Amino acid sequence: MKYIVSTETKKATTKCTSGFSCLIGDKNCRCRVEKCINRDLHFVKSLITVSCHYQLHFGKGHICTCPIRKEIYNKYQE
C-alpha cells in the first residue's frame, strides 16, 4: 500500500535519511507502533539498525518523533 501524507508533513520531515522510503508501503522500513497517546506520542518497537534522527530512547523502549511516521499511523492505523 502506498501512503499519502500532507505536503506540510513532508516538508517538516527534514532529518529523514531514508528518502521517505516508508511512503512506498514497505513495512520493513517502519518501526511498529506499540502504543499511541493522543495521536501525538508514539511508542515504537524499533526496526532500525542504524541511527534514526527521529527515534528517542525512553526507558527500555523508543519514541518516534518522525512527522511522516506519525501521520501514517494516525491516518492508516499502520
Provide keyphrases for this structure.
24% strand, 4-stranded antiparallel sheet, 78 residues, 4 strands, single chain, globular, alpha+beta
Helix content: 10-25%
Structural class: alpha+beta
Please work out how many helical segments DSSP would assign: 2
Count the beta strands. 4
Topology overview:
Blueprint (H helix, E strand, L loop, with lengths): L6 H6 L19 E6 L3 E5 L9 E4 L2 E4 L2 H10 L2
Antiparallel strand pairs: 1-2, 2-4, 3-4
Structural account:
The protein has 78 residues and is α+β, with helices and mostly antiparallel strands. The chain has one domain (7-76). Helices cover 21% and strands 24% of the residues. It has two helices and four strands; from the N terminus they run αββββα. The chain has helices at residues 7-12, 67-76, and strands at 32-37, 41-45, 55-58, 61-64. The protein has a four-stranded antiparallel sheet, with helices on one face. Strand 1 (32-37) and strand 2 form a beta hairpin. The chain is globular, with a radius of gyration of 12 Å. The mean pLDDT is 89.
